[in-house]
Amino acid sequence: MGELTRKDLEILREYADSGNRERYWSYLAHKEHSDGYGLLALGVVRNDNLPGQVANAYAQSQARDQHDRNPALQNRNLTEREWEAFGQTLLHRDLERREHWMEAKRPDLALNLPGRDVQQAHDEAFKRHHLDPNCWTPRVLLEATRKERGEGKAEEVWKEMLNNDVGGTQRAANTLGSAYLAMPFWSATGYVGRLGLYEGSLMAEALPSSDPNVIGSRSSYHMYSEKEQAWYLQVPGSIPLREHNPRIIASLDDARAVRLERAEKATHFHPEDSYRTRLETPKVVMNEPLERDGRETQLAANRPDHANDPVYQQIRGQVASLQAEHGLVLGNNPDGVTARLAVLAKENNLSQVDHVMLGKANGPGGAGQNLFLVQGALDDPAHLRVAISAEQAVQAPVEHSYRQLDALAQRQAQDVESAQQVQRDAMRMA
């Protein structure tokens, strides 16, 4: 039977006080015999799996029309910064429930909170931010079950929601059955149908929130050029267009800042936190088609990892060497690190990469380390050097980096065509 200790609570308290959502939920998810809630919460933080994406979209949708259900509340369309603030409040409310059970001498329940406690933490956090508590996806079903079938059945429903067996299909089936057992037919149909609608649309459109330089949906997103310090609107298959709308740019800049802040916090480990490996959030069966469809195949075809792209090849070889020497720091995502470093090289117009170097850490477990790309000899004062946080490179979704490389290649081709056109015009004038 798993349980929390006083030391665990001290570590969680530091993460909650610093607003470090990634480390807080990751710590809980690493604990032996944890029930899976921490891992699902990580999916919400990163927005990188279907359950997390549905939870985020559902909450935003409920907030938009909450005045219709509660006239005391204003309809809200929250920014990423506002949702981040809510998520940080939730850490404190969640920790309070765990401390309650520790004081009650139930360290097992301090680790795996009962569903009512998880709901209470969400209720208090939503109210603190002037949001309808029903923004939490499971709440309607849990309340209906509690009313119609009792607290014990509500707890069973909660445990079923944490079940990711068989790629999440068991959880989906259980939710469907529980809804029709606890709600009137049309209410259950509406609730299940709404969740299904989100799943169907998000499966094809949602993007993780871990990449600060790619914001939007798969069919239309903004990509940030660090070299130009500009945003480009990218619709797959078309030429990127530079964004000039000040309101949109301000919104994108703020969202990017939030993601960078969150990524920076994620590199700060408590000295006694021994869980340093990155956990992958649970993927479900409905995530799978995206990995197999033509869109991903096309992305793979555009990867700059062929013999005609020496920069990518140079980086890949250097990353492989670093991986063998510093596996813990670079994680288990060498393709993602390579692709992200290739983006960095292209954005800074490096024609070759002679060295990929890992800088010194300024914290425990490799926290604060940078990766450096060097063009030229290390002892040559004229060598070129660019850097990126190792944590950011490791966490960058590989498909996002491929999109960035594709867009950069399109822009380069466009620039070449423009230059050639200028030359042709000059020749005609001569």
From TrEMBL:
InterPro entries: X-Tfes_XVIPCD (IPR046519). It comes from the Bacteria. Residues 303-406 form the X-Tfes XVIPCD domain. This is X-Tfes XVIPCD domain-containing protein. It comes from Stenotrophomonas maltophilia (strain R551-3).
